[in-house]
Amino acid sequence: MTAEKCSNGPKVPDIPRPADVGAVAVSVHLSEYQALTNRITYWISIQYITYSALAVILVLILQAWQAQGSNHTIVLWGGLFVIQLGAWAWTLAVWEIHNTAVYLEEHLRPKIAHLIVDPQL
User: pTM, whole model, 2 decimals?
Assistant: First the structure.
């Protein structure tokens, strides 16, 4: 795209031609696709972090259980509460991954396929 200088000084971009509009739309949709797949990657990392965190929590619960003078009721309920929080974090990550994948397949893919002429996509 070229820009012309107005009489007042600022540059005003040309209006894109119809072929350019399609290319710009495809570029925008592909950028959105890349951003969403990057988001899925981050959620997968968070999902796997919960496994490690829950393993560490279980070890700490066992250590607290075996400590002399520990109140087993508090250790048990506190441990179950923390495990529940970890399960909630894992479920949230899976939910976000699934919703983003569904959006990519059901909403974004048809928009891109409509703009691209190649039938293999």
Answer: 0.68
